[in-house]
Amino acid sequence: MDCGHTFAFHPLTSQCPKCGSEWLQAEYDYDLARDRWLRQLADRPFNLWRYHELLPVLHAPPAIDLGAGGTPLLPAVHLTQMLKLPHLYIKDERQSATSSFKDRQAAVTIAALQESGLTEMVVASTGNVAIAYSAYAARAGIKLWAFLTSLVPQEKMREVAIYGTQVVKVTASYDEAKRIAAAFAQQRGLYIDRGSRSIPTVESMKTLAFEISEQLTRQHPEARYGGLPWRAPDWYIQAVSGGLGPIGVAKGFRELYRMGFIDRMPKLGVVQAEGCSPMVQAWEQGKAQADPIPRPRTHITTLATGDPGRSYTLLHDYVREHGGAFVAVSDEEAFRAMHTLAKMEGLSMEPAAAVAFAGVIKMVRQGIIQLHETVVVNCSGHTMPIESHILGERWARHVVVARRPQEPPAETAPLGAPQEGLLAALSTIATERYPRILIVDDHEPARILLRRILQSLGDYTILEASDGYQALEIAQQNPPDLIILDLMMPGLDGFAVLDSLKSHPATADIPVIVVTAKTLTTDEQRRLRRMARLMYKGEFLSDEFFEEIRRLLEQAR
Ligand SMILES: *Cc1c(COP(=O)(O)O)cnc(C)c1O
Ligand SMILES: [Zn+2]
To answer: Most buried in the list 46, 80, 406, 490, measured by CB within 10 Å?
Structure first.
């Protein structure tokens, strides 16, 4: 990368023989690749080996493969409405053999090492890299030394160990663990993954760009521009530690552009944890070099690279040229996003992955992301069991079955016999005592969104009405504890429903939250405020909305 000298690839070459620079970049025969892809790609299976012409391996797929790449690109379901961002997609990298996007890195690197006859290697890791390498190394018969900072959660350490990897716990920061691992590898002449300076590592991450572009085109063939084979998103967004992911992805998009597969380079959204955000700080100070953070202060160990080195400069240059943003989020914002994504999208992820989503939420709120743009977020991993501090208290219901001394144990009781103890115990989670909330909206997706929010908020019995008449009928027969009312409905609209509710004694005192997408005149606002609480659609992500529901229900008691 520094003097332009070219030479043949070998994984153990870690420096330019001419100038000594450690920054190397792979080049390929792009005309050949283009020609082959246009003719053959449709018949190849959807995994990362389908792009083998642009990977540093000779034989693909290798026998050690565990099904790397080919993860789904999921359209967001509820988040699109909550953020008013209709073209939001999630690249679900949890669905890899080792449950994070580091799976690509290990699959390609181990294949390249195996082709070169190497049988021992070293990694330093905050967890996921070591887990991914451990699995592929086991299959390739390569001995792996993993240097892990002692901050890595026990669950991840044990996962690394079960594959038979030599685990070295380093009681120090991640940056220090990396230095110790590098010294160890040099002493013994072993291959070490050096992140953005290792060719197979960077090359593996390109496949994310290839897959995303191909998948977006498949989902929206009509959105192809000017007859080009594929389309790029407007944004690629990722939670970043050392920055390897976006560096590889950027190279992938550059290659697609060069081959004429896409006509634009996406903007990069680099999201870091506030307590370890050297890139964000440097960007905000207008610097092309980042000052290292010696002691990262975040619970999200996966993202604890304090010294990004030249990787930041490469990303800085990309964002200067093609657009993008560097954003920091707090651990708390990440944990909140983690809950939102699990409850609203059905995606349970590790905190590091949630950092990217917290970043998207922030960037939409700050207007950095425009609502018409196509946004792809890397859901980068889910490797460990949920840690208890993330759930807080009261995350499960406890049912205790009392048994009389002479009663046989439940499993030996005759089938069908009512078990008093069991029924009594279940009554502690009886649903009929839950507050009843009526959702009134003619638009079904809006009802489903509200229903899902309420389901995840707590114990409510949820009723739904699709128009004003049905709403009044339900309210009069068995008055609910709270009504959430849409304003704009055909037939009887929200104003009319409110008037009718307020004029009948049985329903006059039911609290009502009016939700509307429409901007109201001051007159309308005044009229509504006397009878109800007013919320705007799109405010559903705010804690205020949840608090409002809790408060109104308390009052109604
Ligand atoms: C490694 C990792 C990241 C950060 O990726 P980089 O591109 O190396 O900065 C984010 N999320 C998860 C789950 C990871 O394992
Ligand atoms: Zn050189």
So the answer is: 80
